[in-house]
Amino acid sequence: MLRRLGRGALDVLLPPQCLACEAGVDEPGSLCADCFSQFTFITRPYCHVCGLPFETAVIDDEVVCGACMKDRPAFERARSVFAYRDTARTLVLKFKHADRTDAAVHLAKWLARAGAELCHDADCIVPVPLHWRRLWMRTYNQSALLAHALGGLTNKPVVPLALVRTRATPTQGGLDRAQRRRNVAGAFAVKDTSEIAGRSVLLIDDVMTTTATADSCARALLRAGARAVDVLVLARVPAPGT
Ligand SMILES: [Zn+2]
Ligand SMILES: [Zn+2]
Predict the structure, then answer these.
(1) What are 52-66's pLDDT values in tens digits?
(2) How far is ligand 1, taken at its centre, from the CA of residue 91, in Å?
(3) In the 8-state DSSP scheme, what is residue 49?
């Protein structure tokens, strides 16, 4: 009851806001009806490997998209919570630019739901690192915030510094899949393999544009002896034309 009183007092001072806009909501960490209606949550059917949603129904749950069939990523499975567009984009950008770091704990609940199977199979959680220069400018790594919040929810250990960027990569904008792959090839490394070797790793990022960054991270983790790598992200950039 005390906790409820406390919550009530806090709501008077700071009424809970929608995660994506300033509208008031009943429950902290939720979306207002307007924003909710603009979100596209990613559900089956999707590519069994990269999680890209299919537009048409498929019978087989393990169907793989053309891109993964041609050039299979190093990770086992990637899953994402929602499509990166409209209001979802606003939410991610607010979170990224530190207005709403309080959202991490709520967003982690969405990750845990969308990636339940992946969380279950993981031995540890590793965030995609920012290059130190970007980290310095932005002061925190949003993927690490998500990883920590998810670790707290799932009771899985988080290894925040497992991966390091060995070089800054030019931004990925305007590059195609092959160019992005080349852009980030060898950009990540594992310095201390002791917490990675023999483990199933769940890699966390905020946005997945193509599979290039996740693939490059997975390669580094596998080189360090990881048994398998899965990827869980908040937002997935939809394939062109969808
Ligand atoms: Zn809203
Ligand atoms: Zn795929």
Answers:
(1) 998 877 777 789 999
(2) 9
(3) T
